[in-house]
Amino acid sequence: MARKLTPQGIAVLLGLLVVALAVVFGDALFGEAATARNIAERQEPASLAHPFGTDDLGRDLLARVVVATRLSVLLTLGATGISVAGGVLLGVLAAVLPAAARRVAAAFIDLLLSFPWLLLALFFSVIWGATASGAMLAVGFAGVPVFARLVNTLAASVANAEYVHVARMLGSSPLRTAVRHVLPNIVPPLVVNTATHASVTLLSFAALSFLGLGVQAPEYDWGRLLNEGAQRIYLDPMAAIGPGIAIVLTGVLFALLGEVLSERGGRGQAVRAVRATTAPKPVPAAADAPVVDVAALRVAFRTADGSLVERVHGVDLHVGDGEVVGIVGESGSGKSVTAMAIAGLLGPDALVTSERLHFSGIDMTRPPGPAERRTLGLEQAMIFQDPQSSLNPALSVGLQLREASETHAGTSRQDAARRAVEKLRLVRIPEPERRVRQLPHEFSGGMRQRAMIAMGLMGSPRLIVADEPTTALDVTVQRQVLRALRDAQRATGAAILLISHDIALVSGFCDRVVVMRGGVVVEELAADRLHEARHPYTRGLIACVPDLTTDRARPLPVLEAADEELLEGVKA
Amino acid sequence: MSELAFRGVRVAYGRGRAARFAVDGVDLTVRSGTTHGLVGESGSGKSTLARAAVGMARVADGTITLDGTDLTRRTPVRRRVQMVFQDPLAALDPRMPVGASVAEGLLATGKRLSRADREERVRGLFHRVHVDPGRAGELPASFSGGQRQRITIARALAAEPAVLIADEITSALDVSVQGVVLNLLRELKEELALTMLFISHNLAVVRYVSDEVSVMRAGRIVEQGPTGTVLADPADEYTRELLRSVPLLGQALDLEPSDAG
Amino acid sequence: MTVAPPHPGSPRTAFVLRRLARAVVSLAVVLVATFFLVQLVPGDPVRAALGPTAPPETVEALRVQLGLDLPLGEQFTRYVGGLVTGDLGVSVTSQRPVATVLAERLPTTLLLAVLAFVVAAVGAFPIGVATAVSAYGGRRRTIDLAVSGLLGVLVAVPNFLLAVLLIAVFSVGLGALPPAGWGGPANAVLPVVALAVGPLAYLARIVHVEMLRVLATPYVTTARSKRLPPRLLYVRHALPNIVTASLTAGGVVLTGLVAGTVLVETVFVIPGIGSTIVSSIAERDYPLVQGLVLVYAALVLAANLLIDLALAVLDPRSAIAEA
């Protein structure tokens, strides 16, 4: 795959080139300076002539650091090679063994992994002795479990991938599947991890040599030089710091190589938060203000490359007291973003501009003051699409219901708890007294959505925003949730803003339907007059979804190039 | 002739005491040249039943036959039943060009094709599902959801299947794209006399494509019959509940509690 | 955080029992491994220990003393039997019982590791949480980049190198702290810092990443929609959800610290078991090596078990999830 080189990539390439040059030509160029004894200049501190000073035989330490590159890097590569080869072997073995043996192998890898590399390396260096090759084996073997686990995990995840099941279903032989599917999806992450691991290996090797358990005199690598330097740190700190710099820089280089090789590339650029209103208007009194009053709402997000992408292009929306309004649209239509902007819950990465963005007379483009926070906390309720994650898994349902009224209305804990039970009963959750004490994972999906509705009823809601509240649920459960939502609306007189992709659902539940596409409102009409829709998109949207009366003998009307156009919509 | 028949099929999940039957004694026949709809909610066992037919789930009891050949045993005949999945992104190798993925389908036919013939077949299949054959060299990531699903259909067709199983193939798609895929299935059915088991939680979609329909709940079939009959006059309370739950355009939702549930 | 009392048959009890069983099995594996350690040494370990010039009688005498002349099965029984009675053999070089050496030096090492762990844990949480909260959604990008860059560098610098640098700056340069030895509190400062900085940075990064992940979850959006004050938002809603990942990372840190003492004790010439294991390997003092390896392995297993138990108490859901 050809990819453009990033500045980081170029820096890493240059760094690798320098290290490679030092490995190949270091001895030829600096070998003499590194070995020539000069008793007159022994144990000199750092100077211009000897930037790292000289050792006790008067040899130049900078030259020795350069020459030591070869041994340090070659031993690192050797040890990394042992780790990768051993890990792949053990990992593959653990993947192809029969089930029982596979579990034992996995447990063994787990056990090895629970030991830090240094302990494993020490263990192995007892066996192979304090020599350079012994240390290479020791560090190499200490890295085997890491790769065994990696290969095992990668192989297991690819082997369970649906496309591998499909290949098997099509009669692809195990060998062909391995070559065409498993390997191509395992090798790239393996290469990335090898580079990263080389960095760890380099440091490990330096540590062993530093401890005197690696390279032995008269040979020397960076760890050994560091060891010798550390002993004379009072005379010449550079004697220790010099080899240290070489170790860290090369280690960082290998680690960066891993990052460059990984497909993620550089981390996504964070976005800068901007919020602004083009024309701030005086805030009317809250009492007679409409629930939602939006004019010319635009929302843009900053993308990974730093450019702004506008997702909502000037939306007007008005919701009166007790009104049930549905926003319908497909993915990328901007319906959820609009709702989140109204609720004031867009992240700091969103740039919101508008002529007016008011909830209950509160200007939602500015950070709310204390009184406004209180109003928002009590009068706004949210229900999100995924019931699995919209309640905090670590807190009891009761606490999550109570906290808004405790915080904003000063309700006592007892009163709030009583109210929570009452509200759960209102949304028809059986045994609410017992249920309030439970954690969300003890609730079914439909019950969680109803608990979210109950949570919204704890204050004095003026608006319930429900963003695809039933999309993740079965149709029979969908009815229960919608019933709870309707009961809530009738009990409190709150307005509802229902976001959905299902135009039939919205038409059956709402008073008014707003159809959005590509960030703009294409049409807005009463729910019972949907069949009079004029805009071709609305009509297409109605016609392209089969219902229980659709003529089965004829093809479904298709929205012009819906597929491709939507993709464009996402990009634009 | 290509008839897929399930007889007393049971599929177990878990082991030992924790074992339970995800599919618990299912009889179902997909008759040649027809589309059989299988409708049910999450956890009803409909996907497990499909997986059992292509050898991805072990059958504990009963038989699954294609024109009399038992598919619960390892046999090349198994390849004559092909399946398309819900999430096309998971079903396509992210590092394999889509053309190669479609060509993989040709493996199942057992025919040895020359490179030129293979390319010709792949090009034909791309045309058939309305995807530009010039893009065969691209990776799945550069296609939209609907296009990816059409590519996985092309791959299944390349296998020249006697029976095609479509498991929730439109549920991950936008509604407008869903229409495109459903129309494609119609076309294929007419042109190739395809025999199909169409699985979905969406009753309206199942009704639109199926000649016959089975309603599944908790591992069992609760109702079965010609689509028109079952939906017009459901005998089972659960089927009625399902029908009541489908929103109808312009009609207020029926939210009153029912007895079933 | 809700902490339900454990009761028999609950997933949490099962989790704890399973982890205990695993620790016992692991310990058995470690026992076998340390026993075979000497057997695995290529050639004659006794000859290797005494050097090529030692007379054959001395070699034979040591072989008998170490019991290496006995059949393998009997050696193992003696080894395990000795362990049970607290007899870990006698050091070849010092002729002192290994158990005595351990009793002398283990407390120093433990103190060092525990101090460093406390410093790392206490430092990492505020840094990780504060940087995540300030960086959430791309705010204060420069600060975020600077902090994460600094943490990245600190994670990458190995502790022995840091130890040397600290000595160069604080002992050689400023003359503020002793460069070596063990005794007063001043002796502990540099070793603890050298040990703690890397783990602190590592832990802070984990907390930072986890916090950012949690802040982006729908349930935190739900909490935001209630306009809760920051204290409730971050402490009540976010913190309990980073417990599992932080504790798991804490386990890695703790075992890493135990191993890290080997290097740091060597640099600062601290008479703990870390510096002892290095010298005993170099001197091929096998009984001492065996005892020390066993103790280190046991410490690692104990640290892992401790983290697992903490996990079961603080985050019962992870135990349930595993079951």
TrEMBL record, chain A:
It is found in: Cell membrane; Membrane. The keyword ATP-binding applies. It is a multi-pass membrane protein; Peripheral membrane protein. Keywords: ATP-binding, Cell membrane, Membrane, Nucleotide-binding, Transmembrane, Transmembrane helix, Transport. CDD domains: ABC_NikE_OppD_transporters, TM_PBP2. Coiled coil: none annotated. InterPro entries: AAA+_ATPase, ABC_Ni/Peptide_Import, ABC_transporter-like_ATP-bd, ABC_transporter-like_CS, MetI-like, MetI-like_sf, P-loop_NTPase. It comes from the Bacteria. Belongs to the ABC transporter superfamily. This is Dipeptide/oligopeptide/nickel ABC transporter permease/ATP-binding protein.
TrEMBL record, chain B:
SMART domains: AAA. Belongs to the ABC transporter superfamily. The keyword RNA-binding does not apply. It holds the Pfam family ABC_tran. PANTHER family: D,D-DIPEPTIDE TRANSPORT ATP-BINDING PROTEIN DDPF-RELATED, TRANSPORT ATP-BINDING PROTEIN. One of its GO terms (molecular function) is ATP binding. The keyword Nucleotide-binding applies. Keywords: ATP-binding, Nucleotide-binding, Transport. Residues 6-243 form the ABC transporter domain. This is ABC transporter ATP-binding protein. CDD domains: ABC_NikE_OppD_transporters.
Automatic annotation (TrEMBL), chain C:
InterPro entries: BPD_transp_1_N (IPR045621), MetI-like (IPR000515), MetI-like_sf (IPR035906). This is ABC transporter permease. It is found in: Cell membrane. The keyword Transmembrane helix applies. Residues 106-307 form the ABC transmembrane type-1 domain. PANTHER family: DIPEPTIDE TRANSPORT SYSTEM PERMEASE PROTEIN DPPB-RELATED, PEPTIDE ABC TRANSPORTER PERMEASE PROTEIN. Keywords: Cell membrane, Membrane, Transmembrane, Transmembrane helix, Transport. It is a multi-pass membrane protein. The chain crosses the membrane at residues 20-41, 110-133, 145-170, 182-203, 242-273, 293-314. Belongs to the binding-protein-dependent transport system permease family. It comes from the Bacteria. The lineage of its organism: Bacteria, Bacillati, Actinomycetota, Actinomycetes, Pseudonocardiales. Pfam families: BPD_transp_1, BPD_transp_1_N.
